[in-house]
Design goal:
It contains 11 helices and 13 strands. With about 325 residues, the chain is of the alpha+beta class. It has one domain: B-lactam Antibiotic, Isopenicillin N Synthase, Chain (Jelly Rolls, Sandwich). The strands form 3 sheets. The protein has a 7-stranded mixed sheet with strand order 1-2-9-6-11-4-3. A 4-stranded antiparallel sheet has the order 5-10-7-8. The protein starts with a helix and ends with a helix. Bound molecules: 2-oxoglutaric acid and fe (ii) ion.
């Protein structure tokens, strides 16, 4: 298992690496693209998100999940994967919140006010700072992907068309000595996911040989994963073929696992459509044009591993 895990590339996206001159920056962009083409995933080091900010985030998350169940249940949002989820029959060890970044800083204020009516200004600031830095990281990676597939000119309109959700998660310690499912196998439906965890491992990836491998994520590193949205979009931009990483969470440690992540996706109403000039015999159309939000609703109603193929596949 361990040696398999090592094949998932680790990519240094620190300030210095991003400041490389033209040729070396291009090499880095290629590394990002190839990781997403070959594995749907890579481990990223990103120093613009400091250790202190990560620690503040996990501290705040611990006090958030320690709040009474009735308080946490007050967080309700009609859109999927936002409302507080706890005590689920399918994934009883998992608890989560999904905060919409569309509302910007207001989201952090309203959320912290709802959870702590007396206020929690420090966690509010941490949430604002973390979500804006994750959005910046997401944009940096998306720009590299666009440049690597020769579509740099589409990057600005992509940013305008995108939104994101910040998900905050806790996994309880499994009740017996055996490992237990924290989150069922799935691909993310979004464009790109960036995850960060405390020191408790548990994320597993289905590799291209069909084996589950445990990702050993170094302290402070991030996991970047392509979702179904990137798979479909990359096809539409340039016939690029990315893998949407299938993953799950398995818990075996005697400590609670905390993770948070940015899920970037097209805004409501954005359509994914391959331009005619990109379709030829060598690059046949893979997906019919579709509205991302309609696909997402379809997925929520018909949970399926092959939702993208079933919904939009040619
Ligand atoms: O907690 C994690 O590390 C993974 C979370 C995840 O896969 C998800 O929320 O889609
Ligand atoms: Fe996921």
């Amino acid at each position: 298992m361990g040696s398999e895990a090592q094949i998932i590339p680790s990519i240094n996206l620190s300030g210095e690496a991003l400041d490389l001159d033209g040729e070396r920056y291009k090499v880095l962009c290629t590394k990002v693209r190839e990781a997403l083409e070959n594995h749907g995933c890579f481990i990223a080091f990103y120093d613009k998100i400091s250790k202190g900010l990560r620690e503040d985030m996990f501290m705040g998350m611990m006090s958030l999940f320690d709040l009474p169940e009735e308080t946490k249940k007050k967080y309700v949002d009609p859109r999927p994967y936002r409302s507080y989820l706890g005590k689920s029959k399918i994934i009883p060890l998992h608890e989560s919140f999904g905060l919409d970044n569309e509302a910007g800083d207001k989201m952090a204020q309203e959320f912290t006010h709802l959870m702590w009516p007396e206020g929690n200004p420090s966690f509010c600031e941490t949430l604002k700072s973390m979500s804006s830095k994750l959005v910046e990281m997401n944009n940096t990676i998306m720009k590299m992907i666009f440049e690597s597939v020769g579509m740099g000119k589409l990057y600005n309109s992509h940013v305008e068309d995108s939104t994101s959700v910040l998900r905050i998660m806790k996994y309880k310690v499994p009740p017996s000595n055996e490992s237990a499912m924290g989150l069922v196998p799935h691909t993310d439906k979004d464009t790109l996911t960036i995850l960060c965890q405390n020191e408790v491992q548990g994320l597993e990836l289905l590799n291209t040989q069909g084996q589950w491998i445990t990702l050993i994520i170094p302290d402070g590193a991030f996991v970047v994963m392509a979702g179904d949205g990137l798979k479909a979009r990359a096809d539409a931009w340039s016939n690029a073929r990315f893998i949407a990483a299938k993953h799950k969470v398995m818990l075996s440690e005697k400590r609670e696992r905390y993770s948070f992540g940015l899920f970037a996706m097209p805004k409501e109403g954005a359509t994914i459509q391959v331009p005619d000039e990109l379709v030829d015999d060598d690059h046949p159309l893979l997906y019919q044009p579709f509205k991302f939000s309609d696909f997402f609703s379809y997925f929520v109603e018909n949970i399926s591993d092959d939702a993208l193929e079933l919904y939009a596949g040619v």
